[in-house]
Design brief:
With 224 residues, the protein is an alpha+beta fold. It is built from 5 helices and 12 strands. Strand 4 and strand 5 form a beta hairpin.
Length: 224
């Protein structure tokens, strides 16, 4: 992809993510984490957005996000994660189960993850889109619709604003009030856990390999 096309792609993604800021309602502001929700068309489930600041190198933050097995340690209600396929350094397919308390059945989903790294702003965008038919259905309820992203924006050296924005239709008759409660708890706890786990030694030791224009292209040191 050319530099011009990369810049235009990020401009489009940034506009889509933040142009409708007036639609967001701040629901929780605690411990340096803000969680917003908003109503979206054709859904009774709100979209959520969590924002926090993380003091760590990009290498460490992406190290956690790349460590599929670590998902239960920091992503709220995540269990049984599995990396299904690595297409490239920037792209892959991931399976995970979302744990619900009895009597609600657990959900599972397959996410297509695709990362882009802006060579000018150095911001990273990781798009997450559900691909429900990528593998056969299991005993869990398969989530059909889920989409969102992580946006990692540099503020200064080793300080990043991290945004997790997501909308998921869990299906299966879960009460909407319960889902709309979870979409506040999930980003809040997930970002708080991310801020902590990124300080673990193996992620501190993670080192990215960069292209001449400063875009991450692979791992030099990967301890997971």
């Amino acid at each position: 992809m050319s530099l011009f096309k990369t810049i235009m792609l990020f401009s489009t993604l940034f506009s889509l993510a933040f142009a409708s800021a007036e639609d967001w309602e701040l629901i929780k502001d605690e411990d340096g984490i803000k969680v917003y929700t908003r109503t979206i068309a054709d859904s009774k489930i709100k979209e959520s957005k969590g924002v926090t600041t993380i003091r760590a190198p990009l290498d460490s933050i992406l190290g956690v996000l790349n460590d599929t097995d670590a998902c239960p340690k920091w992503v709220r209600n995540c269990k049984d994660p599995l990396k299904l396929r690595d297409v490239s350094f920037n792209e892959g397919y991931i399976y995970q189960v979302i744990n619900f308390a009895f009597p609600v059945k657990d959900r599972d989903l397959i996410l297509h993850s695709k990362m882009t790294h802006n060579p000018v702003t150095k911001a990273v965008n990781i798009q997450l889109t559900s691909i429900p038919d990528y593998i056969s259905e299991t005993k869990n309820v398969r989530i059909k619709k889920s989409a969102g992203f992580y946006f990692i924006n540099p503020i200064s050296d080793n300080i990043y604003e991290v945004t997790w924005q997501h909308h998921t239709e869990p299906g299966g008759g879960i009460p909407n009030w319960l889902v709309n409660k979870l979409i506040v708890d999930t980003p809040f706890n997930t970002l708080r856990n991310l801020r902590s786990i990124v300080q673990e030694e193996k992620y501190k030791e993670a080192k990215l390999k960069y292209s001449p224009d400063g875009v991450a292209i692979d791992w030099e040191v990967k301890n997971w």
